[in-house]
Specification:
It is built from three helices and eight strands. The chain has helices at residues 2-18, 81-85, 131-137, and strands spanning 22-36, 45-57, 62-76, 94-110, 115-129, 144-156, 159-168, 182-193. It has an eight-stranded antiparallel β-barrel with strand order 1-2-3-4-5-6-7-8.
């Protein structure tokens, strides 16, 4: 019974792939981000993005694109952060946040299908905190971050080129209620589909 179920799933995946209903690929790129809020400098800093994606056809022009990404966001602390949150950052000037992110995007293909507009939510789980923050505060940043993304994807054969903007909806400050901290930034990436 289990072998026949596995055979049915494999047959379905190959039939979807053969009719171009389903694509899977990998992607890598750069994040240019900041944390918006008191205690942080109002400047964008670079990080990286790495992961995989799928494209699932809904209609001639609409596709769902779920992704699984590792996103690194970097930011710098403002000089007055001690007045706002105390000495919890222990002399640090930079903060690195690594998220396991799951965007689910709706793609609207325009014209001949080479350009798609993208929009959708992204949920990120904080997977790596700066050691100094862990040692001094336990949880300075909340573990979850909900964002909205919007952007453009260019398709060239098996290659995908993405440019997106995202804005955080969640307050990621886990140490005080006096100040809201929200991620925001730009993402540029190149992807390659396998089938």
């Amino acid at each position: 019974m289990r072998a026949s179920g596995l055979l049915a799933v494999l047959t379905m995946l190959f039939s979807l792939q053969s009719t171009a209903q389903f694509h899977v690929g990998v992607k890598a790129g750069a994040n240019v981000t900041k944390v918006d809020g008191k205690s942080f400098k109002d400047e964008f800093r670079s990080g990286y993005m790495l992961g995989g994606f799928a494209e699932i056809k809904l209609s001639k022009k609409l596709y769902i694109q779920p992704e699984l990404l590792i996103n690194q966001y970097n930011t710098r602390l403002d000089t007055n952060y001690n007045n706002l949150v105390g000495n919890i950052f222990n002399g640090m000037t930079s903060v690195k946040l690594d998220y396991l992110s799951v965007p689910i995007l709706l793609n609207y293909r325009m014209g001949g299908g080479f350009i798609s507009l993208q929009a959708g939510p992204q949920y990120g789980v904080l997977i790596d905190k700066n050691n100094s923050i862990l040692q001094n505060t336990g949880n300075a940043f909340r573990n979850g971050d909900l964002s909205l993304l919007g952007g453009v994807q260019l398709k060239a054969g098996a290659f995908r080129i993405n440019g997106r903007y995202f804005v955080g909806l969640s307050n990621i400050n886990d140490i005080t209620n006096d100040s809201k901290w929200k991620n925001q930034g730009f993402q540029l990436s190149v992807g390659l589909t396998f089938f």
